[in-house]
Amino acid sequence: MTRQRKRRWRAFLALGVALTLVAAACGGDDDDDDTSGGGTKGGGDRKEDTGTVNVLNAMEPDEGDAVQAVMDDNIDADYDVEIEASSEFEEQLPIRAEGETLDIALVPQPGGVIDQAEAGTIVSLEDLGFDIAELEDLFGEYYVGLTEHEGKHWGLPTNINLKSMIWYPKDDFDKAGYEVPETFDDLLALSDQIVKDGGTPWCVGFESGGASGWPATDWMEDIMLRTAGTETYDKWVAHEIPFDDPAVVTAAEDFGKVMFGKDYVLGGAKQTPSVAFGDAPGPMFKDPPGCWLHRQASFINAFFPEDAEAGKDYDWFPFPTIEEGQDNILFGGEFAVVGTAGNRDEVVDFLNQFMAEKVQCAMGKEAASSRISPNVNVKGDCYANDILADSSEILTTALKEGTGRFDASDMLPGDVNSAFWTEMLGYMQDGASSAKSHLSAIEKTWP
């Protein structure tokens, strides 16, 4: 996922609500293998085609232009496609949805999708003619199921990003004789060695405007998956266990082993709430490195120096194993949703092509968009670089095997999500012994 897409997330998260839209569609009027995906059966009361399919999103101009070019070159249709990258996406989305002027929106929060389904401003995948079983084969049952509500599905996965990644300055790392850690204990031992050698192990920044704190929640989620496993993670998200359950406290304390390790974090844990998440990895590229390790999702290399070369100046390794057998991964992504105005044959046709291998592969090859596809049939040679290709392989395996889980904070009620961000920042300020009190404060915000 690119810098622009993360900023879209930040805009959504800053509001802490589901301003999102829903429902996506796919279909398949032709039998060509390049459009493999769920086939539309023509359900619902279709509106008259307009000759244009509009796709509202929060991309920044360079990414929007890149995606528009891919659409122009790869969508085979007698209608025009408009990729509308709006700096006012979060405001325009509910207005357009409620005003019945929305064709499609690209939405990063499953909870927001369901909220719009409840508001009645969107069209379900079933009513658009989707075969849900075919979609589950294409994207994995878990991912498709994230927008299920009252027996119907409301969002079509169109993008995915890997979050379980730790970045490092490869050339300097290799010259120093450091080795990629395989376990969490190895990671802590590496951090100790870097400190002993006179360096600072970690670059960390949690500032993100109104959404400050979300990078800290990602740490918690990654660790929960590697300590408690997917079943307990799902119970946590569904509030079947409290936010201050021992499993969650353990994850917070493991998080604290890094944040509060002696001389581990550049500037110290107390400073992390004031360091912008996009600026945080910058010191890693100094000579010598100002820090050596940075945990962040696959989009973060868009914030790296423009002349930094992947595989030479930087590389990454998966967040290491904590508990044996719990090598689950954390991901985020987006869903295409269809407003009531979009219940048209041309919109369904576009979505069918948009989710299919040809278009998804073309977007992966475009460095300015660098989108990773949730379509499990999109292969590694579709991507602009090895980092995206390797990320795609890990994500595809997780989708097939059910070992990946979506960002928990994006599935929590708005007040709980906001408290999660805020209390993680408080944890950084108050120190290692404060973990349980901050988790208990989050628990009190549940509806």
What does this molecule look like?
The chain is an alpha/beta fold. It folds into 2 domains: 3-160 and 332-401, Periplasmic binding protein-like II (D-Maltodextrin-Binding Protein, domain 2); 165-330 and 409-443, D-Maltodextrin-Binding Protein, domain 2, CATH 3.40.190.10. Helix content is 40%, strand content 11%. It has helices spanning 3-15, 61-74, 89-98, 110-119, 132-139, 141-145, 170-175, 184-196, 214-227, 229-237, 246-259, 345-354, 357-365, 386-401, 414-430, 435-443, and strands spanning 52-57, 80-85, 104-107, 148-149, 152-153, 156-162, 165-168, 294-295, 315-318, 329-338, 404-406. The radius of gyration is 21 Å and the shape is globular. 53% of the residues are buried.
Layout of helices and strands:
Blueprint: H1 3-15, E1 52-57, H2 61-74, E2 80-85, H3 89-98, E3 104-107, H4 110-119, H5 132-139, H6 141-145, E4 148-149, E5 152-153, E6 156-162, E7 165-168, H7 170-175, H8 184-196, H9 214-227, H10 229-237, H11 246-259, E8 294-295, E9 315-318, E10 329-338, H12 345-354, H13 357-365, H14 386-401, E11 404-406, H15 414-430, H16 435-443
Parallel strand pairs: 1-2, 1-3, 10-11
Antiparallel strand pairs: 3-10, 4-5, 6-10, 7-8, 7-9
Helix pairs in contact: 2-13, 9-10, 9-11, 9-15, 15-16
